[in-house]
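Lab manual, section 2.4: Encoding a predicted structure.

Procedure: take the sequence of the chain (369 residues), apply the prediction step described in section 2.3, and record the output as structure tokens. A sample record is shown.
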Amino acid sequence: MTGLKVARLQLSHFRSHRRAEVVADGRPIAIHGPNGAGKTNLLEAVSLLSPGRGLRRAGAEDLVRRPEALGWKIFADVTAGRQTVEIVTGAEAGQSRSVQVDGKATTQTALAAILRVLWLVPAMDRLWIEGAEGRRRFLDRATLSFVPSHAEATLRYDKAMRERNRLLKDMVRDAHWYAALEGRMAEAGAAVQANRRTAIAALMAAQQDAQTAFPTAALTLVEGSADAQGVDALRAALANGRPRDLAAGRTLTGPHRSDLDAVFADKGVHARDCSTGEQKALLISLILANARALMAETGQPPVLLLDEVAAHLDTARRAALYDEVCALGAQAWMTGTEVQLFDSLGVRAQYLAVTDGPDGSVVVAGGAA
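Recorded output:
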């Protein structure tokens, strides 16, 4: 296959893997084995080929294999068509994460333009019923896939907000200290919200007329009026909100307070009020819509990471998910405790068995149903 894929993944002292190597041909990869064997660790390694802290949001120090604590590394060859890029990322003991692309040091944000990675993990099952932070994170991951510069805008906004919050905590009242920071926050924050609205529009469009077994979700970015009106309105809202922010010791206005609302379109029911199965189906629907939109926009489907997703679907929906993934031509890394969960994939997939050996996780090819 010539689409976007991780053609080779090699791990060194990463989580439970002392050493592991996977050579992939672009087909979906069905990873099976008992709980705790190290299946999800393979998906987490792939997620770290994109900006951020990966699908578990772990710090660099949490990724190192114990008890050695020697540092960890991930090597990957990423191919798109006939081009191959080598990505190396890792961290020495006590150090922050570093990234190299084709042997040259770079930033994590540069990875967004190389590999588009989407994931769905069990921790996201409560997305619709817990706090807004998780939904913002979900939306920002989708936004990053459409607008790689979104990572830089978010970092600029967060950095300026942290500096403003320090002033607030120190009860600084001089307006001159705030003006420049609020200008930077307003500029970056307006870009963040515009990018989010672009992503929502793309997700909504990708759901229209799609042949899918999964429900359509109507999405809305829930934001304050100042956030919606752009740079000047956000700058004014920040300035006007200083007394309240001083009392709270933190910034209470801006895109870091936004939320994502979803409605099961056919039923007109908010996602938070849907059944557990419907909430899961809505999440899968949005991941697939994200992948379809990227395929339409770039000509390349993203890499999908689907952790334990098959176990929560009935046989028909499981088969439908696999059919959609294969129709997209996407490389999907999928985990399950039993190889039988992937029966309907047949020869359309590669199979990896992961077991817990005496010296950590062991990965071997094979075990197809």
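Check your result against the sample. The two ends are 22 Å apart (CA to CA).
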